[in-house]
Amino acid sequence: MPSTRDIRRRIKSVKNTSQITKAMEKVAQAKMAKAQQSAISGRSYADLMNRVLGEVVTHAGDFDHPYMESQGSEKRALILVTTDKGLCGALNTNLLRKVSDEFVAPDTQIISAGRKGAQHATRAGWDLTAEFSFGDPPSISEARAITKVAVELFESGAVGHVDIAFTNFINTITQKPEVQTLLPITEIKGVSAGVEGEETSEDLSGGTTEFLFEPSPAAVLGELLPHYLNFQVLQILLENRASEHSARMVAMKNATDNANQLIKDLTLEYNKLRQAAITNELLEITTAQMALGN
Amino acid sequence: MADTLKLEIVTPEAVIYSEDVDMVTLPGSEGEAGVYPNHVPLMTKVQAGELIAKKDGAEEILAIGEGFAEITGDHVAILTDNAIGSDAIDEAVVEEARAKAQKRLDEGGDISEDEAKALTQAILYSQAQLKVKRHRR
Predict the structure, then answer these.
(1) Degrees (nearest 5) of the Cα angle B134, B66, A237?
(2) ipTM value > 0.90
């Protein structure tokens, strides 16, 4: 039977925990808004890129680019986008489970972005080729570095296929682990900015104005593709960041609720004990009085 | 008919510049290109270099990295990874970045063709920034 002091101590400690989780919830909320904001700030870039892509794709005709054709190697590479920190619910677990069930063969080369993925890869004995971290919010130069490694593997023929695994931000309460093919590019689609929703690409339209191309449509398209990949990867990093923060927000909200429930239960128990002690004391006093007097 | 051009410079992270100007000189793939309003619609590569925007007689100079330009009769849109106005350039930082890239390039050794290309681009961009900054004085 715990004493009232023990219970008081527990209540205090649970209260502290709930304050921390509450603060973390608020922080995650603010960061999620920031990640969404920076995804949206790429919108004019995406619009312009879609316009240029739309034009060149309609004019380039039969187009060949090293990015569009696999070198024939059966080996695959996987860019694994995870978070750096934990306390975000089952976000990484869900992604890693999906990935290890369906996408990782013993010879798959893993390029990890985010510490959790790298840790898991090492533990599971996967072939970890490169490890990156990315900021919050991620920057284009970080996206470029990640893309570069993948492109080098692909162009050298070491791998014939590059996938990217990340958690798609659908809305604040739903995040979906997803795997997309990055290379070879089979179909050139428009890029989209903004993290909300299931779609991560847009339809292209073009051909309303007759443009001149300098040097040629094919050359422009060829030069555009690396930027296209970089931007895609950047948007995926942003999606993942937004997912991370919203998952953390929900996890921390649950933790706060649990803590508050616990405080309520403990307070009830504390009051019961206190009352029992008072009753006992009263009893003792009356018995003592009865024994002494009359 | 339009008598001004809307110049927009966008990077993946932000819109760096968006204003109506009278004329734009940009570093095209086939050499410097001056663009006036009512230009023929043109898609072109741009190289790292300085971009000059003329507006009401005054010139504004920006450094841009390699990228693309979409030019129509009434607007010029530049798609690039890097762009910076001359006021925001910190000479010391740029000089250091340039020296670092140059050193890495000179060491040679195990750098791949792609990396060499990226380094060259970085050097060109740094040089463009320095040129823009010094131009102002």
Answers:
(1) 115
(2) no
